Amino acid sequence: MEEAATTPARTRGAHEQRTGGHHGFEPPRLTSMLRHALPRFVEGVIAPVAVFYAAFALLGLNGGLVAAVAWVYGGIAWRYARGHGVSAMLLLAAVGVTARAVLAAATHSAVIYFLQPTLGTLTVAVTFLASVPLGRPLAQKVATDMVPMPEAFLRHARVRRFFLRISLLWSLVFFVNAVISLWMLFHESIGTFLWVRTGLVAALGAAAVAVSVWGFRRCLLHVNGDAAPATLG
Prior knowledge:
Blueprint: H1 2-19, H2 30-59, H3 61-81, H4 88-107, H5 110-131, H6 138-146, H7 151-155, H8 157-187, H9 190-232
């Protein structure tokens, strides 16, 4: 029992020795992070939209609303029945879909159903932007929610600059996303809005993710390089 209890401490000590005990950090492999995050993203974000549109095309607005709500709450019930945890993304999807469905049903408008998340996207863009002058970059909060990072690493000046710049990048991404969505929502059919807008937004998001990952890897190389001399000393 004593040996087992000291193993984590030894592992942390070895990691600190390799990195100088200060700024070094080795994140999980990108593939393992994607395997963890992608199913939750599909379940909580992509699937409700796809289910809504399929039912909307076959059954009309009310059918689409019922199907989207049933999908989300059915997923929650299925997870509880199997003893699995419910992701925060799925819970947020449940709250969002319910509110949107109630308003859309009350107004009998599919546009209202999609207008709310678009306005939410604009709010997120403003939040990312506002976090920069406050010195509390939202990109850092999102990243540390996904991958816990040592405080010493996060305090490094280069890491701070990286997250400030990435917060600006994602503010721009969400703002462009909102502008595209609003224009298409009021100038195109719901079908065109869903598929064309989804493709454009996905491409934009993929490019931003690629830039973020590339920038983070460059940042890691520099920070871990700064920590290496401490190991030699």
